Amino acid sequence: MTEVAASATTDHALLPERGGSGNLRETSEQAEQVDLKRLNRALSVEAESGFGDLQGRAQTFSRFLSGVLGQDPPSDWVLDGEDRRKWQELGSHYALYPELDLPERQHLVAETRRWLDQIRRQQEPPPAPRPAPLPKPEGLSLEQPLQFLKGIGPKSAEKLAQLGLLTVRNALYYFPRDHVNYSEQVLIRQAKVGETVTLVGTIKSCTCFTSPKNKSLSIFNLKIADSSGSLTLTRFYAGQQFTQRGWQESLQRQYPRGARVAASGLVKKSKFGITLDNPQIEVLADEGVDSRSLQKGLRPAVATGKILPIYPLTEGITADLVRKAVQLALPAVAWVADPLPQDLKQTFQLLDLSLALQQIHFPETGEHLAQARRRLVFDEFFYLQLGLLQRRQRYREQAQSLPRYQPVSGELVDRFYQMLPFQLTAAQQRVIAEILADLRDPLPMNRLVQGDVGSGKTVVAVVALLAAIQSGWQTALMAPTEVLAEQHYRKLVDWFSQLHLPVDLLTGSTPAAKRREILRQLQTGELPLVVGTHALIQPTVNFQNLGLVIIDEQHRFGVEQRAALQQKGDHPDVLTMTATPIPRTLTLALHGDLDVSAIDELPPGRKPIHTVVARPGDRLQVVRLMEREIAQGRQVYVVLPLIEESEKLDLKSAIDEHQRLQEKVFPRFKVGLLHGRMSSSDKDAVIQAFRKRELDILVSTTVVEVGVDVPNASVMVIEHAERFGLSQLHQLRGRVGRGSDQSYCVLMTGSKGEDALRRLKVLEQSNDGFFIAEMDLRFRGPGEVMGTRQSGLPDFALASLMDDQEVLELARQAAEQLMAADPSLNQWPLLGRILEERQAHLLGPGLFT
Ligand code: ADP
Ligand code: MG
Predict the structure, then answer these.
(1) Which of 151, 326, 703, 713 has the smallest count of CB within 10 Å of its CB?
(2) Domain end among 552, 576, 600
């Protein structure tokens, strides 16, 4: 099967090279210059390329690491004995790196990165010096309308209002989306590969057109020249909306011939000579703007040739207008009171708010900018965390003090353990203990259980249900699809009947009479457990005493839906479960008010799923694999993605593929079809048939993603794999490998894009859901991974969940400390007020409101 895989590219020029020849000896002579940036870069490149011990220009990743860590750390670093030992220990581990298997490599690299990050923080110089308080300008207040500033007329004010800029305060909080650093300005001829530079020149030509090779990619070329030469800057816009001629023309109009532009970015070499990687391009002043009208002295940053802010604009509003408004408003930062307690600012080395606001717009140096940004990012995270913690606090105060679990020995939970044909894994035991402790606690539980596909979350859920039932409570288990609810129900009936406990299933397709009976039994309290879908949150569903709510695949529900189920009881315990592991940063940002447990271990004896990325030329081998497995009595899934937004097309591709496979490829086998448009009884019939082995192959849309559990299936073929997120592919892949035999996952892709292949290769190399989720985050960004809107991911002005993880952790710590000191925040009235203002914006409705 391995031939199917496209061969990995090993030729990488990213690994560090010292002064040209880059051998180890030379590195050791320059021990003083151990370069953390380089070390970190090597570590992250290695991680991104899947831990293959990359071959760099001069040496392999592992040799580079063991070389650097094999010498003394830099002498100006303050390291204690333990840190020194750790340094050496890591060095010796890298000598063995080529011998390690994948999980060990992942672990070592992760550990090194964590440790280096910690060391770096210890070595960090204190933040930029705090200057004397800024002078408070009389006659300029924060609430003053911009219109009354000298130099801004009614016309300009109206334009600014289109950007939401009405007052001085608005202008101060209108953060630049980037800066052009003129201290990095060089002539085009001087630009060196690998440096970040700013170029200033005039536009020679500008074109924007649809890629001849990819109809959904738009290519933008801008040729600029200065006294020393010229170069072409390129940007790519992916997506149908950018290939419309109108859009392309409007983009071209923004870059008229002859206009002066500043472009900054990393210099790289391309087929056509030198260019900038993903450049920031700023039109400095085209003919439409009279730059002389900007009074002298208003633009010191420009005048002194330093750092120029670039603001988000809309059509008809010039950069200079916004810059001027901010500049005029800027002295008012002195009136901004800082809500953060002084000692907190000291502990976390934060700039004063007014200084940060000043420096985010017109920073004196790159370091000032970094410090300003750090403070403002901290604020965004800090208020979010404080809000989440306060929400939890309030909820707990309202909650009735009632433990839900009074353990009685030899009762339901113990009998359930005896029924299980296997030992619980250590991770399952730990998570169960955490849940039972929550149930014993008078405060209501609000816990998220994360566990990779197949880690055994169901068993853990059942223990929680039985513990609550045994103590006299009713319980509910809600799943996002009928297929999944049905499947849970089937398992639970099996166990519950042995325990002589009733359980019922309530979904949209439960017949009316049955439904009435279930509702009656819930109302009287006769029914201790109901399993169901969204049908459970209908207003007609009432419980006698609902004590525990479990929500499976919780991320598939909206916040309101989760809350609606919860409100069927009086502050019941809530357990949510997800198989889509969320990296810790996202967990904090999204669920700062939840406790999180991880089932981070799979039951023993599982064979990792053999995963390969396959190209169209490999089809024949894929067909052979399917035939071979089916001949051995196994079964196969073929999954098709959502081809377009349109469900119709989606359906068509599944129907076509089903027909093609049945008639042309596998006439001897039975091929079934499953898609979202089928009625739930039809869906169920198909899944039943597949489960009973009446079908060899199941062609499906992504409806099989969650839940479907057919241990005999051993092959998962995913078409157009590049269209899926990594976590979703991992989830789909989890439909096989549920038995003890070898299983296979084939990721079919016609894409030649290097990025797409690199992304898919992550799945070839890892079976670890958390690792895959981290990579997904790196490749696609948090918004796409979580689906910003449904997920309730906060909309930050500056903060990035990718790049600011460290600040997020600090903000969390700070919020916890403050809440511990004074949960009412009475000591800091201003803080309380700002929190309230921000809360509405950041938190949205939550489980605890
Ligand atoms: P998921 O976390 O994906 O919901 P399930 O709860 O469906 O996983 O469990 C997957 C399979 O593993 C089930 O067939 C279950 O019976 C089995 N299982 C769960 N825990 C263990 C264990 N400790 N040892 C062996 N098999 C287990
Ligand atoms: Mg499950």
Answers:
(1) 151
(2) 576
